[in-house]
Write a structure and sequence with these properties.
The complex is a heterodimer of chains A (about 220) and B (about 425).
Chain A (H helix, E strand, L loop, with lengths): L9 H6 L1 H35 L4 H13 L2 H12 L3 H25 L3 H10 L3 H31 L12 H10 L2 H29 L11
Chain B lengths: L1 E9 L5 E10 L4 E5 L6 H6 L9 E6 L2 E2 L5 H6 L1 E5 L10 H5 L1 H5 L4 H14 L16 H12 L6 E5 L7 H18 L2 E6 L2 H7 L2 E6 L3 E6 L1 H6 L4 H7 L3 H5 L15 E3 L4 H7 L3 E5 L5 E6 L21 E2 L5 H10 L4 E5 L5 E6 H15 L29 H13 L12
Parallel strand pairs in B: 3-8, 3-9, 6-7, 7-8, 11-12, 14-15
Antiparallel strand pairs in B: 1-2, 1-4, 4-5, 9-10, 12-13, 15-16
Helix pairs in contact in B: 5-6, 7-15, 13-14
The chains are: A mainly alpha (about 220), B alpha/beta (about 425).
The site of adenosine-5'-diphosphate has 11 residues of chain B, from helix 1.
Keywords (chain A): Membrane, Transmembrane, Transmembrane helix, Transport
InterPro entries (chain A): ABC_transp_perm/SBD, MetI-like, MetI-like_sf
GO biological process, one term (chain A): glycine betaine transport
């Protein structure tokens, strides 16, 4: 760092408010859409794994193997197919969410008490209807717990995408390193952390509103 | 109504849960399936709504093989209540109860109106409608479970140990209320329990199962007590079945004598003149107040001035059983049971010897059916066994008496339900 350069130049922040807002939006999109896609993949997969237990171990292993591949390597693989686009960042991030979301969907479905499942069957729910109207709603608290973990890790991972030019707020981190200028690095880092915390808080709130019935039940719900 | 024809169930792991069951359950009555744990009661029950498919034989409902009806459709016409209620935790009480009407496509408004009606029927206040299951006690949840099962007014109700998980006091209440409800609704009910006392209290007919899924006896409660088919059944119904049989003999027929009774306005001298160890003191409507002990009488004054020993309990000639009468005699300080009429006025007294002599007399008609109780087959209705018989717990007050008496008696060791 150059001599005499302060950690934060507030003036810079003031000058870049509009641009920062733009990159914050991009960052959120890059971080959260993969969670949504991950959920869309994990719910049906989780239902299948719950119903046919034997496909669960291989599925989970596959998801964990994917998670262990370094993000940079995944980016480089997908660049060949999808170029230097946002998709190239979002596809690996989506794959990463699976190792958290699939087990949480399975655990969520397993949290449905046996008498409840039996009662639903005995009332005359068809299997599909029972899963949609009884089992999935009851799985929500456990699934949301997984979504929180996935969302926070996805938001912080987005920055790495800057290596292929698609990193949301990661842009400022790389720029700051190149220019030996700490203000954008610190600003972007703090913003990313804030995004993660606020997203997490909103998910908690959403869950409270979605599942008023789970109050006072603690971890079991 | 519900008919099992040579039905067996073998689970893939080799367990024979039900073995060659043939049974026909009467319409509009409560049939209790009872037996030790693991004897195939739940399996039998679940074969009625196709939650378990038999490996052999047929189950038919109103003459139709149940396999001819699609399972979900069949189930919407059969109410089902289980031990831990199994309420949907994510739905309000009202929406839980509205489940089956909603499945039948009634529309939200109509389904909820029906649900509100049902909550009232099972004795839950309307303020509970908006709550969630976790906010209710076990007993309340069980009531909701019953209301939910009645959703579409199904003619058949299956109940699997519905009252086993609540404490004995709540259980007594739920049982009494269940009988009251059944008087109104006349459903065809199959009720599973491992508790022989509950079976006798609730059942119009009782099917006793032994381990291995074999039917040991199918009979009315009174015949089960009087004529257990074999040692297993005799053992299962318990050592005190002689006493329990008295629940089915009406007190009305018992001979009572006048007894040493005096109005509270009588003088101490009159009491002493009776030359009895105990004098029953009554009010001006002849309602009993208590016992005065001759040995403790004052020298002068009226009976109003002296302390009375409490009555214990009296028995009613309208509605109580001989069991309540005998219990009253055993608990009375004077060893005399006090019988009262519908107005609560003293009808007469009797001691335990007089009562048991009389019961032995009427016992002839109780045990009159000479042929051994048949295993499997259509049970006779309660009326067929004689006009003397009453249902032990026809009303809540009666049920409480029975409960008291049980408390002092021994428990049936085999039921595993030693839960009084
Ligand atoms: N799904 C199942 N697979 C294998 N065995 C079972 C299954 N369900 C019940 N059983 C066995 O069948 C027997 C009867 O069970 P059940 O009908 O539940 O008895 P009960 O309700 O009288 O306690 C028991 O030995 C039980 O272990
Ligand atoms: Mg059972």
């Amino acid at each position: 760092m150059r001599d005499g350069e302060p950690l934060i130049r507030w003036v810079w922040i003031g000058d870049h408010v509009g641009e920062l807002a733009h990159y914050t939006g991009v960052h959120l999109r890059l971080g959260l859409l993969p969670v949504l896609f991950g959920l869309i993949i994990s719910v049906p997969l989780g239902i299948l794994c719950h119903r046919w237990r034997w496909i669960y171990p291989p599925t989970l292993t596959a998801a964990n193997v994917l998670y262990s591949v370094p993000s940079l390597a995944l980016f480089m693989i997908f660049v060949r197919y999808t170029g230097l686009t946002e998709r190239t960042v979002m596809i690996p991030l989506t794959l990463y969410t699976l190792s958290v979301l699939i087990p949480n969907v399975v655990d969520g479905l397993a949290s449905v008490p046996d008498p409840v499942r039996q009662a639903a069957t005995a009332m005359g729910f068809s299997t599909v209807r029972r899963v949609i109207q009884v089992e999935l709603p009851i799985a929500v608290p456990v699934v949301v717990a997984g979504v929180r973990v996935a969302a926070v890790s996805s938001i912080s991972l987005v920055a790495v995408g800057q290596l292929i030019g698609q990193g949301g707020l990661g842009y400022y981190i790389i720029r700051g390193l190149q220019l030996d200028f700490p203000t954008p690095i610190i600003t972007a880092t703090v913003l990313i952390m804030l995004l993660a915390l606020v997203t997490d808080a909103l998910l908690v709130l959403a869950q409270r509103l979605l599942t008023p019935w789970a109050r006072g039940k603690g971890a079991k719900a | 109504m519900i008919r099992f024809d040579a039905v067996s169930k073998n689970y893939p792991n080799g367990t024979t849960a039900v073995d060659g069951l043939s049974l026909e359950l009467a319409e509009g009555g409560i049939t209790v399936l009872v037996g030790p744990s693991g004897c195939g009661k739940t399996t039998t029950l679940r074969m009625v709504n196709r939650m378990v498919e038999p490996t052999a034989g047929t189950v038919s409902l109103r003459g139709q093989d149940i396999r001819e009806v699609a399972a979900p459709e069949l189930r919407r016409g059969i109410g089902y209540v289980i031990q831990h209620a199994g309420l949907f935790p994510h739905r309000t009480i009202l929406d839980n109860v509205a489940t089956v009407p909603l499945l039948l496509g009634w529309g939200k408004k109509k389904a909820r109106a029906r649900a509100a009606e049902l909550l009232e029927l099972v004795g839950l206040p309307a303020t509970m409608a908006k709550r969630y299951p976790y906010q209710l006690s076990g007993g309340q949840q069980q009531r909701v479970g019953v209301a939910r099962a009645l959703g579409a007014d199904p003619p058949v109700l299956l109940m699997d140990e519905p009252f086993s998980a609540v404490d004995p006091i709540v259980r007594g209440e739920l049982q009494a209320e269940f009988l009251r409800l059944q008087k109104e609704l006349h459903k065809t009910i199959v009720f599973v329990t491992h508790d022989i006392d509950e079976a006798i209290k609730l059942g119009d007919n009782i099917a006793v199962f032994r381990t291995g899924g074999k039917l040991a006896q199918f009979d009315t409660p009174e015949r089960l007590l009087a004529h257990p088919a074999d040692d297993f059944v005799a053992d299962f119904v318990g050592q005190d079945r002689g006493i329990r049989r008295l629940s089915f003999v009406q007190a009305a027929g018992l001979p009572l004598r006048e007894g040493p009774a005096l109005p509270v306005t009588a003088s101490v001298a009159e009491a002493r003149a009776l030359d009895e160890p105990w004098v029953l003191v009554v009010d001006d409507a002849r309602r009993p107040l208590g016992w005065a002990e001759a040995a403790g009488l004052a020298d002068a004054g009226t009976l109003a001035d002296i302390p009375l020993a409490p009555l214990g309990h009296t028995f009613s000639l309208v509605g109580d059983s001989a069991r309540a009468a005998l219990d009253a005699a055993l608990l009375s300080p004077s060893r005399l049971a006090v019988g009262v009429d519908a107005q609560g006025a003293v009808a007469g007294v009797a001691d335990a010897y007089e009562l048991s002599a009389a019961i032995a007399g009427t016992g002839g008609s109780l045990g009159a059916a000479p042929e051994a109780a048949g295993v499997a087959g259509v049970a006779e209705t309660a009326e067929a066994a004689g006009p003397q018989l009453v249902k032990g717990a026809a009303d809540p007050a009666d049920a409480e008496d029975a409960e008291d008496a049980d408390g002092s008696g021994s428990n049936t060791g085999k039921t595993g339900g030693g839960d009084r």
